[in-house]
């Protein structure tokens, strides 16, 4: 007779096993119902499908192996005594997820781009309306492996929670949790670095002065997405580790890229304001002139001031939740930069020679930056930030002349 605690334990082990079956079925479905027909019907090229599906094929035998092992140790009555040793031996195989997860940003971008093709869109819509899809689109299926990966620590902790301390499986389960947490952390790190590199390679600089070492040195995109300015123009904003980059999404050589809209703003110098609903002017008109209150909600402001150089951007998120995400990410980034700066100052104060050297280096760097900024101010006086439309098409209805830097008064970001 099983105790209530053991019943809970068996349920957790069964959930692990059943999840493997469901995963294998979905991965095979993605190949059979999406990949193979699109290749056969020439809806997409083999190269495009390889980019979108990545190494998905290689994940199927990996999970079939775990499922086989779990079934082999299952007793005739359906219960399982010990599962930890199986997991300890199998979990290192999850390192093969590295390449699959690192490819997801490029895969998603290409899939979204191909959806503009009516043949692709029509095929995917027919699949979505078919019973086999369970109302899930193709990307839902392609994202299932990543979702499964991050769920393993939760599943194993649930098994451990219902495993008595004196159970022979207890130590192995704890070891398995440590293994999978390390693997997930490492894959998350590499995936983040891959995503960051992907977007850095797609930044378009209007001039050399916009390039910033803070962007080059970034290894993680803390947050990014579409926001609107106070004129309703769409911008794509990237928050890297130490710099905020405001861009316009553009198309260049049939590839989605991001043209810098202003000079990058160092996070350490960035001023963040949470604006109350109705506090922002829209299109240069006072808010009272607008009857559509939806347009003046969910704004926040980022600004930057260094001497006579000023930037101020009122940015609108899609909803309250999205706005709060941006506020939290920016605050966390500022806190991280502040902590790092404090550590550097502490180290400098402990080493007089280092302090002298750092101060001299810092002064030289600041002098070079000020010289560069003066050159930019002079060059901007007779130029604008518009793009060469012969090479790039802009996803905006209209543009106004804008300058990376303006002096003497604050400006709101305009397109």
UniProtKB/TrEMBL annotation:
It comes from Podarcis lilfordi. GO terms for biological process: intracellular signal transduction; positive regulation of Rho protein signal transduction. Residues 220-335 form the PH domain. Keywords: Cytoplasm, Guanine-nucleotide releasing factor. Coiled coil: none annotated. This is Rho guanine nucleotide exchange factor 3. GO terms for molecular function: guanyl-nucleotide exchange factor activity. SUPFAM superfamilies: DBL homology domain (DH-domain), PH domain-like. InterPro entries: DBL_dom_sf, DH_dom, Endocytic_GEF_Adapter, GDS_CDC24_CS, PH-like_dom_sf, PH_domain, PH_RhoGEF3_XPLN, SOS1_NGEF_PH. GO terms for cellular component: cytoplasm. Residues 8-190 form the DH domain. Residues 350-384 are annotated as: Disordered. It holds the Pfam family SOS1_NGEF_PH. Acts as a guanine nucleotide exchange factor (GEF) for RhoA and RhoB GTPases. The keyword Transmembrane does not apply. It is found in: Cytoplasm. CDD domains: PH_RhoGEF3_XPLN, RhoGEF.
